[in-house]
Design a protein that fits this description.
Layout lengths: L4 E9 L5 E10 L4 E5 L6 H9 L6 E6 L2 E2 L10 E4 L11 H12 L6 H11 L14 H14 L4 E5 L7 H18 L2 E6 L2 H7 L2 E6 L2 E6 L1 H6 L4 H6 L6 E8 L7 E4 L2 E4 L6 H4 L8 E6 L4 E3 L2 H7 L12 E13 L4 E6 L30 H9 L17 H6 L12 E5 L10 E7 L4 E3 L5 E3 L11
Parallel strand pairs: 3-8, 3-9, 6-7, 7-8
Antiparallel strand pairs: 1-2, 1-4, 4-5, 9-10, 11-12, 11-14, 12-13, 14-20, 15-19, 16-17, 16-19, 17-18, 20-21
The protein binds adenosine-5'-triphosphate and magnesium ion.
The site of adenosine-5'-triphosphate has 12 residues, from helix 1.
């Protein structure tokens, strides 16, 4: 048996404090694997605990299979929960730990056959007579899963069940959990703050921020059509590049999005999505470029080999941008190149956990020397790249100077581009880039997506 779970405008606060869950609405279909994703403290566990009946619901409604369930006892909900600290009884063997809930449920019955069947499913038959102290972390986690599964509940709630395990084991158990819950066909709500885990596990992912649901969709939808800048920044590795831009839509000229001293010229005729940017004319926006949206122009190799550059390296829909190599991050199968394009990065405060710096952050600007001048200075005899200078710079240097310094430990460069390890890049090189405007994201001042069209929003659930 499996259950539908609906939350309608559910709110919760602790001890008359602020709402930690704020008008949360979501419909979870029977058998679905739904992942609740968000940064620490955003209310994920609170939502889970309200579904389980371990926390009261202040406002709004919880429906289980369409029935009002706000005041049902936890035991009436037929829900099994797996916690991060999968507490097993230390004085009981795995067999007794798994059988314990069965014995509580039906005191006279022999839990033996169910325990054995569950252990077989999890591949832990040979661990049944050991105590938790004699098991590894991964084995303990499997016993805890067994305890939840053996009861044949109609809902699984899992609260970061893998976060205590090392990365390798986590990946393996992650795959096992996905397979197991699908085989059992039981509705599962899985909490994590790890976006990669969410993307690999969920039928749908619900992104929470500060107690407020931001977006619900399949992993593909939340990645391809993030509703706002928070979702865009939270999902995907490497993190989406977010740059401050300014839309210019003169009546008699091409529409551009300026990024500091350079700009992206939107090709004519404007696509439907780009036409929507007209209303942003003269306004500051946030430009989002995922790593697949930017590539190093093939002309780069030619310039260094001394040969003539190809006539046109850009594919339809690609426009040029120039970057100065700030830092090269070797990852084995690929290389992440951090470029300085002279634009200002946009920051999503909750997501700015300091990243370890490979080397100390560099000063972004020398007194009175613009990035363009630095590009030219360092480029020396190299042919000047396709850098375009605005007549009137959108962001005067004084304004840039007022910008808060990037957080300590942040890697330098405002644009991160993925490339193959065979391209040799060194700090200070000037590199022609191509931006694929089909992958351009633009968010307005409030962080809401304006391009691609918000009408292309996936189903928001709830
Ligand atoms: N019993 C409690 N009393 C008071 N405040 C609480 C209580 N439980 C949680 N909170 C607060 O409610 C907010 C949401 O907490 P919750 O545990 O739901 O977050 P979370 O998203 O699960 O975070 P994490 O990823 O760190 O587990 C936090 O600000 C937390 O401090
Ligand atoms: Mg939690």
């Amino acid at each position: 048996m499996t259950r539908a779970i609906s939350l309608h405008d559910v709110s919760k606060s602790y001890a008359r404090g602020p709402r930690v869950v704020d008008r949360f609405s979501l419909d979870i279909t029977p058998g679905e694997f739904l992942v609740l994703l968000g940064p620490s403290g955003c209310g994920k566990s609170t939502v889970l605990r309200m579904i389980a009946g371990l926390e009261d619901i202040d406002e709004g409604e919880l429906l289980l299979d369409g029935e009002h369930a706000n005041h049902w006892q936890p035991s009436e909900r037929d829900i099994a929960m797996v916690f991060q600290n999968f507490a097993l009884y230390p004085s009981m063997t795995s067999r007794d730990n798994i059988g314990f809930p069965l014995r509580i449920e039906s005191p006279g019955a022999d839990p033996g056959p169910r325990v054995t069947a569950t252990a077989r499913m999890l591949g832990i038959e040979d661990l049944l007579d050991r105590f938790p102290g004699q098991l590894s972390g991964g084995e303990r986690q499997r016993v805890a899963m067994g305890r939840a599964i053996a009861r044949h509940p109609s809902v699984f709630l899992m609260d970061e069940p893998l976060s205590n395990l090392d990365a390798k084991l986590r990946n393996r158990l992650r795959a096992e959990i996905a397979q197991l819950t699908r085989e059992l066909g039981v509705t599962t709500v899985y909490v994590t703050h790890d976006q990669a885990e969410a993307m690999s596990l969920g039928d749908r992912v619900a992104v929470l921020r500060g107690g407020v649901l931001q977006q619900v969709g399949t992993p593909r939808e939340v990645y391809a059509l993030p509703r706002n800048v928070f979702v865009a920044a939270f999902i995907g590795t490497p993190r989406i590049n977010l740059l401050r831009g300014l839309v210019r839509a003169p009546l008699d000229g091409a529409m551009t999005v300026s990024l500091g001293k350079q700009f992206l010229r939107l090709p004519e005729p404007l696509s439907l999505d780009h036409q929507l940017l007209r209303v942003q004319q003269g306004r500051e926006v946030i430009v989002g470029l995922r790593s697949e949206a930017v590539r190093i122009s093939p002309t780069f190799g030619f310039a260094h080999a001394g040969g003539p550059p190809p006539h046109s390296a850009a594919r339809p829909g690609e426009v040029p941008l120039t970057g100065l190599v700030e830092h090269v991050e070797f990852q084995g199968h690929e290389v992440l190149v951090h470029f300085d394009t002279g634009s200002r990065p946009a920051v999503v405060p909750e997501l700015e956990a300091p990243r370890p710096a490979a080397r100390p952050p560099r000063r972004r600007r020398r007194e009175g020397v613009t990035v363009l001048e630095r590009i030219r200075e360092r480029a020396g005899s190299l042919r000047a790249g396709p850098v375009v200078v605005l007549d009137r710079p959108a962001a005067p240097d004084e304004e840039a100077a007022r910008e808060p310094a990037p957080p300590e430990g942040r890697l330098p460069g405002d644009l991160v581009v993925r490339t193959t390890p065979d391209i040799r890049l060194r700090h200070g090189m000037q590199v022609p880039l191509l931006v694929d405007l089909a992958h351009l994201f633009v968010f307005d001042q409030h962080g809401d997506r304006v391009c691609p069209s918000p009408d292309r929003l996936p189903d928001l659930g709830g």
